[in-house]
Design brief:
Elements: H1 8-42, H2 45-66, H3 69-75, H4 80-107, H5 114-122, H6 129-162, H7 171-194, H8 200-211, H9 214-241, H10 245-262, H11 267-275, H12 277-282, H13 284-315, H14 324-349, H15 353-404
Helix pairs in contact: 1-6, 1-11, 2-5, 2-9, 2-10, 3-6, 4-5, 4-6, 4-8, 5-7, 6-7, 9-10, 9-15, 10-14, 11-13, 13-14, 14-15
């Protein structure tokens, strides 16, 4: 039998959305990784650990501030005016939350992260409110351009601050201020372009609809927190369990170095799930296809990532030599996290927010307790083992309840 000839033009046309959105993620993450590799090489382990600690605070804290509104916009909204209204109410809600926690930030000398928290929640190029709105309102193609532009501007600003301030670990924090101002300008542009004022009564209708989703948002935020928390909370466990601040920051640097590189494999599921999100809302076959693509592609890329890490710590980042076992455990944990992502997304699409929340929260609390216990005996390896076990349990629970739907 003569093998069927592959038409490259047709192949490209049928996969162009994956390629474009994947490129935007790869570009944004690529810039982040270039910055990451430069800083890991140029900074001392202690300073790099402090830089990564601030980064994790903002990534994790912004999930609280967003209050699940980004996921709500992705999975709930239908008409354009509902999407725009939810965008407005979501941004106002995040602002109110930051104002509410300001006394707490002031009390513990973290007031300087208030604006950065707003930026990460509202305008960051990954998992922000405006990014979620762009995906459902404009589609993956146009949203890809936003991700690329914002990632480039933010990374350039980080470098500018890094070379011009004395507190170099806070370069990311300070870079958030000017880019947040740019985000506000873009928000006003979006509202002027799309928002139609149909009277106070219409606004009240949309507001009641938004308020009516508070219960779902509470479940979504808990689900998002616990989903993001896996492996990220490991950083906080290290920070507060280590015997001294210097040791804590060095261990944060080591763990974060391995974790960030292992997170490369997250690009694939993020791309596929983002592009196929609307299809998955109406078509179970699209879910099965997305799941199959994610597994197949990751089985190809994981060995390459491991080889690259091995070469990197052997010849360039020699301070991190001896972390191969730690990296291997984190890489397997990431793969288990990826296996659960399609199921978690599907549960949210079907509005099983409380179920999603219950699985994520219970396993997250188990993960924290197990990681703390194992850290006392095995240090960083113990924390990685705790996360691996927890993410395996989460995947099995997701699959069990998905089959029961």
């Amino acid at each position: 039998m003569v093998p069927k000839r592959i038409n490259l033009k047709v192949l490209f046309a049928s996969n162009k959305n994956y390629l474009l959105y994947g490129t935007s993620i790869l570009f944004g993450r690529g810039i982040e990784y270039l910055l990451f590799f430069f800083l890991a090489y140029d900074m001392s382990q202690r300073d790099f650990g402090e830089f990564e600690f601030y980064k994790k605070i903002l990534e994790f804290g912004s999930v609280f501030v967003a209050f699940g509104t980004n996921s709500l916009i992705l999975t709930y909204t239908r008409g354009l005016q509902v999407k725009v209204s939810f965008l407005i109410f979501s941004c106002l809600l995040t602002l109110a939350i930051v104002i509410f926690i300001t006394p707490l930030l002031y009390r513990y000398d973290y007031l300087f992260i208030a604006i950065p928290l707003l930026y990460f929640a509202q305008f960051h190029h990954a998992n922000s409110i405006i990014q979620a709105f762009g995906l459902v309102a404009y589609g993956s193609k146009n949203n890809a351009y936003y991700k690329i532009i914002v990632a480039l501007i933010f990374s350039v600003l980080i470098l500018l601050f890094y070379f011009n301030i004395t507190e170099t670990p806070k370069a990311l924090v300070y870079a958030s201020y000017p880019v947040y101002s740019m985000g506000l300008v873009y928000l006003l542009y979006v509202l002027r372009r799309h928002w139609q004022f149909d009277g106070i009564l219409k606004i009240k209708t949309f507001f009641k609809l938004f308020i009516g989703q508070l219960g779902n948002m509470a479940a979504l935020i808990a689900g998002n927190i616990s989903n993001v928390a896996f492996l990220v909370t490991d950083i906080f466990v290290i920070r507060f369990m280590a015997k001294s601040e210097d040791l804590a920051l060095v261990e944060v640097a080591i763990y974060s170095f391995a974790l960030t590189i292992a997170s490369l494999i997250i690009i694939i599921p993020n791309t596929i799930l983002s592009v196929d999100l609307e299809k998955m809302k109406y078509n179970l076959d699209a879910f099965d296809a997305a799941k199959s693509k994610i597994v197949t592609l990751n089985l190809i890329i994981i060995p390459l990532v491991f080889i690259g890490y091995t070469l990197g710590v052997t010849f360039i980042y020699t301070e991190y030599n001896g972390t191969l076992m730690l990296f291997g455990l984190i890489l397997i944990s990431k793969f288990l996290q990826i296996l659960g992502m399609p199921y978690g997304t599907y549960l949210s699409i079907k509005r099983k927010y409380v179920l999603n929340f219950s699985i994520n929260l219970s396993v997250m609390l188990f993960n924290i307790a197990l990681s703390i216990s194992l850290y006392l005996y095995l240090n960083l390896l113990g924390i990685a083992i705790g996360s691996l076990v927890s993410l395996l349990i989460r995947f099995l629970l997701f699959r069990k309840y998905y089959k029961a739907l």
